[in-house]
């Protein structure tokens, strides 16, 4: 399954069903149906037996869900009231196209036109209470008949290659990780490997809590998309990571301090294999590695991320060479774990 297909499937947190179905079919073909299961949180866990005994059991994980929106109700005029699912800056969503529900009903996120705003309005950021999703409904009843409370909405963004090896899409966080896990499943490795496709990361790392206890690996390698900070107004010393410079290897984030020996081994493997890599130089964000690190007796853990500009928006950007580097370093580790 290619990255374009994965990105264009809608799977906001708590509604990963369509993506899970696609991943499940592919995983069963690669690992055998008897080695793939779905747990109660909707995680897909695929096991591949190693060629040798005595090797550590490694879990490679990535989350299936993306940020999105959920409908709360509607105004008398038929405009849908909504809130984010996951962290989305309201400044990046005005006038963005979305699709709603299983039928992918088209809609647009709207706000009062600039011509009608007061000077005071112009000085503040419009919050979610000031924004609406317009589906062209004639009134409240019509709107709710099509999109009742609890209906999900996702950004409607086509996967678009541009520039020198860059791509713009929704949900690069974390379809890059899902894509690379499916590619990694095509081989066998010296040790046992569990591939964990996780749910509800964007709303509090929820799926990985149960998965961590179910798998209980010796080592956890989490594949992510992470925030790049290489915009023109940012001093280079404040760059977190930069697209085009390789996979970002984390030493710490807001939920984990990674074991030094694993961090160092990953960097040595990258150096030895000529794999482009960079440290993630900011202590930012949270990810599922935290729950694998802490589950049961604990696990060695680290996160390998693809730098993404404009993350948690309808138009994230990454460099495909960084996606390839994430795959290459993870594969090198699995071959040498």
How would you describe what is shown here?
The chain has 337 residues and is of the alpha+beta class. The protein has 2 domains: 3-66 and 170-336, Aminopeptidase (3-Layer(aba) Sandwich); 68-155, Elongation Factor Tu (Ef-tu), domain 3. It has helices at residues 3-8, 17-31, 119-122, 140-146, 172-184, 207-215, 260-273, 289-294, 320-336; strands at 36-38, 44-48, 58-63, 68-74, 80-85, 97-100, 105-110, 132-134, 152-155, 160-162, 166-169, 193-198, 219-227, 247-249, 277-279, 300-308, 316-319. The strands form 3 sheets. An 8-stranded mixed sheet has the order 1-2-12-3-13-16-14-15, with helices on both faces. A hairpin with a 5-residue loop joins strand 1 (36-38) and strand 2. Helix 5 crosses helix 9 (320-336). The chain is globular and about 65 Å long. The mean pLDDT is 94.
In short:
With 337 residues, the chain is α+β, with helices and mostly antiparallel strands. It has 9 helices and 17 strands.
Strand order of the largest sheet: 1-2-12-3-13-16-14-15
Which second-level CATH architecture of the largest domain applies?
A: 3-Layer(aba) Sandwich
Total beta-strand segments: 17
CATH fold descriptor of the largest domain: Aminopeptidase
What structural category do the secondary elements indicate?
alpha+beta
Largest sheet: 8 strands, mixed
